[in-house]
């Protein structure tokens, strides 16, 4: 879905992570004609617990060209969060 070659170890789509004072961010490359969504949970063992991360940078968007996006979230010291990026076909 991200246009990479699964047979080539050098070809990969990989988000990176940014941690600052009270903010956490996921940086990834948008690929044309795909929609990306960052989701979060506090319980990865429960498949129904994943939630849309409601921030302006995470709004639904079908990109026209490759671009890099940073989706940030506030760090809540009282609860650990797990994140994932879901890629949807056109």
Attribute tags:
about 90 residues; mainly beta; 3-stranded antiparallel beta sheet; 6 strands; globular
Q: Strands of the largest sheet, in order across it? A: 1-2-5
Identify low-pLDDT runs.
Answer: none
The number of helical segments is 0
**Number of strand segments:** 6
Query: Rounded to an integer, what's the Rg over CA atoms?
Result: 14 Å
Shape summary: globular
Largest sheet: 3 strands, antiparallel
- Give me the strand/helix succession: EEEEEE
Residues in helices, as a percent range = under 10%
Q: What is the typical, i.e. mean, pLDDT?
A: 91
End-to-end distance:
10 Å
Structural class by sheet pairing and helices: mainly beta
Explain the overall architecture.
0% of the residues lie in helices and 41% in strands. It is an all-beta fold. Strand 1 (16-20) and strand 2 form a beta hairpin. The relative contact order is 0.32.
Question: Short description, anyone?
Answer:
With 90 residues, this protein is mainly β. 0% of the residues lie in helices and 41% in strands.
Give the SSE layout:
Blueprint: E1 16-20, E2 23-30, E3 35-41, E4 51-52, E5 67-74, E6 82-88
Antiparallel strand pairs: 1-2, 2-5, 3-4, 3-6
